[in-house]
Amino acid sequence: MAQGEPQPLVSVIVVNYRGADDTITCLRALESDLDYADVELICVDNSDEAARIRAAVPGARVIEAGRNTGFAGGCNLGAKHAKGTVLGFLNNDARPAPGWVSAAVAELRAQPRVAAVASKVLDWDGTGADFVDGGLTWFGMGYKRHAGSPLADVPAAEHEVAKDVLFGTGSAMFVRASVFAELGGFDERFFMFYEDVDLGWRLNLRGWRVRYVPESVAYHRHHGTMSAVDAPETGRETFLLERNALAALYKNLSDETLARALPAALALAVRRATARGELDATRLDLERGGDPSGPIESGDVAIPRTTLAGLLAIDQFVDQLPSLAESRAVEQAARVRTDADLLPLLRKALEPAYPLPRYLAAHDILVEAFGIEKAFGQRRKVLVITGDALAERMAGPAIRAWNIALALSAEHDVHLVTTNPLATPPPAPFRVSAGKHRELTAPIAWADIVVLQGHVLELAPSLKKEHAGKIVVADLYDPMHLELLEQGKGGADDQRTADLAGVTRVLDAQLERGDFFLCASERQRHLWLGHLAALGRLSPRLYDADPTTQSLLAVVPFGLSPQAPTRTGPGLRSSLGIGGTDHVVLWAGGVYSWFDPLTLIRAIDRLRRNRGDVRLVFLGMKHPNPEVAEMDIGARTIRLADSLGLTGKHVYFNEQWVPYHERQNWLLDANCGVTTHYEHVETTFAFRTRVLDYLWAGLPIVTTDGDSFADLVRAERLGVVVPAEDDEALAAALEKAMYDEEFAAGCVERIAVVAQRFAWPEALKPLVEFCRDPRPAADRLPGSDDLVKTPPVRGRAMVRRDVDLVREYLAAGGAGELARRVGGRVLKVAKQRLRRG
User: Fold this and answer.
1) Which of 61, 87, 206, 798 is the most exposed, having the fewest neighbouring CB atoms within 10 Å of its CB?
2) Are β-strands 94-96 and 86-90 bridged in parallel, bridged antiparallel, or unpaired?
3) pTM for the structure as a whole
């Protein structure tokens, strides 16, 4: 960071239990060795050595726990007294390298999505690895990969490169204080061992990242603390490891995975216990054990403590289940990541971990019998919701939702739901259904990711909750509020104002809630960036996470089929009685009030005088969605064509809507595609979805200037761009596109190349990539807070500030201005105190 730049206060917490010598050494190193100035030292004493530590390190704040609260409880107590926005945890038998804090803080400031930094931990001499990566077995045991290995034997890529990990070791790690508080800190039921695994697991499930930073180095005298607390032969360490592994597993696995893993993990824990003690599992088996003619054995059987530890761990896990079930409910409701998402962070989930022959045999049996490998590869669940009709005849929003579902179904379990009453969809390789309001509750509860359009969010208020446990993707390709400005013309002014305000609130709600947004063009991207900025979503935290904002708002244009159109039935010529040599210009979408079909009718009237075989066909006059109101522009278009004597001769209206899977038959009968519109704000940000069908069918395009497609047609020379409401220019353009064979052939050749960019698989790539690694937006992560805060003004500095303000107010407006400002400030302070009260 730049010199003089404000830095966050870091509170380093060291827990002491009967290890004052080590603790004093650790605290003194923190005082003298760090290259980071803003550090608060907190020591939590779990024994009775507080006075000695205070005397030896007066700069540290020593907190007396009054009893042994364990590592988890001690750290949580220290965190409650900490003032820093970053918490550092360091074992009392560890020491920091000079850059231990500064490297971690730099990562936290550079990566707002990183909640915790896992330090690189070496042995006391710095030659052996203690923590350079974490792993987790399917039965819940976290472990430090490469621990105990000489650092020279560990591949450089494993310890010298920053990477995401499931957890950091509690012996040396950092956590954002606000996030630590949000998650309730370490789980004190663990006492010690795996509380760091559990915390990292929970952070990852909620969408945060835990980052291993090799420049943040500490040195650890491994188990220096544990040797003072207990001896290995007591079995107490084994007991804690076994019990806590089951607790972490139970809290954090999804329902589907837990149903397979927990029974197998319990059985494996028993086998682990008997294998450690080398017990004869057939000893009580009537079929195999003992001599039937000999005396009956009924004496006590000696059980090693290492075996007893595993059995008692299961017993204690059962006792903890009621409270663990409450914690599990919290974690499962808050999770936004799937077990499959975290699988790469587990490193080797099927690692048996114990090299005991009987144990290894049981491990393989249980993995196979309970389908453990499949359990950790569950597909993500994606819900796509549209408000448009899903039927043989579909309009743009439904077509887009359908193709989104199709693209995502290759990698995920997808459910497409429409809130429209018309739902008679064609066959699909994913689930399709209809539902409204309360009927959305179950699909939303099922989903990991929800992709929605239009007004859908208003029908699913549960998704509006700030931390609803769902990733929400809002598809903003249709700027509804701008459409409404045109669509509402002719209505009462007050109703238009109210309607616009309502639609804008709908969009505001999506923009405030969404984790990822889709728009159709760069023009639209600028529009929505402005809207996000106005709502405060374009925050420093979000900007710092991604200054390009591409990870928040991506251009996903309307797409077209990757397969070339193939005739499957009759087209417009046979359906409407148009001759095989006639030149046909096709209007491929609906007729809405923001379009200008009237100028097009007049242009056809001009053109037919020189080109008697010109034919204009409107592909569909009646929208397939029954909830879309009829617009008078359609009737006006027909009346104009009738008045000019064009209807049924040079202009043809298909009164219905061509089924989506049959539209290619009509497109292949055309010579040219056309779209005309007025010059207004809706045009500026619109994306004419059916124009893509012209690209798909290889039709030269004639379009009015002013929208993103006009830019494309002009830049790629795909047809002719004309001014708005200029029937003479439009007639000339249509003639060129249809009758100039050389020009038309060039357009067709160039269209074939451009069309590939708009194929659905290509267009939807940003969404597909996001769904492979979905996370909440950086400003929506639970517990997000500022790392660096402006220090409060106190004492003389406060007096100087107030005097300067008085002078400023008097200069600006005299005594009246001063009185107004002072009154406002008093009111603001009063409101703040009321809120706190």
Assistant:
1) 798
2) unpaired
3) 0.84
**φ/ψ of residue 135, rounded to 5:** -135, 170
Task: State residue 803's pLDDT score.
Answer: 75
Considering only CA atoms, which of 89, 173, 159, 103 is closest in space to residue 127?
Answer: 159
> What angle do helix axes 597-607 and 632-643 make, rounded to 10 degrees?
20
Q: Quote the CA–CA distance of 126 and 103 in Å, as a whole number.
A: 18
Strand partners of residue 176: 86
Neighbours of 90 (CB within 10 A): 28
C-alpha distance across the termini of the chain, in Å: 39
DSSP 3-state assignment of 476? coil
Is-contact 535 510, C-beta < 8 A? no
The band of 791, judged by pLDDT with boundaries at 50, 70 and 90, is confident
Beta strand ranges found along 286-386 (DSSP E)? 381-386
% pLDDT > 90, the chain: 71
Structural contact between residues 43 and 53, judged by C-beta atoms closer than 8 angstroms: yes
Maximum C-alpha span of the chain: 118
* E strands present in 576-630: 583-587, 614-618
d(CA 294, CA 609): 118
Strand order, beta sheet including 651-653: 651-653, 614-618, 583-587, 672-675, 701-704, 719-722
Residue 291: C-alpha distances to residues 278, 301, 325, 533, 541 (Å): 22, 17, 47, 83, 74
> What angle do the packed helices 305-334 and 195-205 form, to 10 degrees?
20
Q: At what angle do helices 741-755 and 727-739 cross, to 10 degrees?
A: 90
Q: Is the dihedral of CA 775, 780, 785, 786 positive or negative?
A: positive
The number of CA neighbours under 13 Å toward the Cβ of 624 is 24
**Do residues 552 and 558 touch, judged by C-beta distance below 8 A?**
no
Is 70 exceeded by the pLDDT of residue 637?
A: yes
Q: With a cut of 60, say whether residue 628 has pLDDT above it.
A: no
The tens digit of pLDDT for each residue in 556-571 reads: 999 988 889 999 999 9
| Cβ proximity of 688 and 661 under 8 Å | no
The Cα 265–Cα 349 span in angstroms is: 13
Q: Is 216 within 8 Å of 165 (Cβ atoms)?
A: no
Could you read off the pLDDT of 117-170 as tens digits, one per residue?
A: 999 999 999 999 999 999 999 999 999 999 999 999 999 999 999 999 999 999
Q: Is 403's pLDDT higher than 80?
A: yes
- Residue 588 is given by DSSP the state -
Q: Closest by alpha carbon to 811, among 823, 800, 803, 793?
A: 803
b vs e for 640-652, b when ≥16 Cβ sit within 10 Å of the residue's Cβ? bbeebebbeebbb
* Contact yes or no for 308/442 (Cβ under 8 A): no
> Which segment of 92-96, 199-203, 226-230 scores lowest on mean pLDDT?
226-230
Under 8 Å between Cβ of 451 and 402: no
Strands 142-144 and 129-131, how do they pair? unpaired
Rounded Cα–Cα distance for residues 114 and 338 (Å)? 18
**pLDDT attached to residue 491:** 86
Going from the C-alpha of 727 to that of each of 12, 489, 539, 651, the distances in angstroms are: 75, 23, 47, 15
Backbone angles phi, psi at 785, to 5 degrees: -160, 165
User: Whole-angstrom Cα distance, residue 183 to residue 330?
Assistant: 10
Chain centroid, CA 260 distance in Å? 27
pLDDT higher than 70, residue 630: no
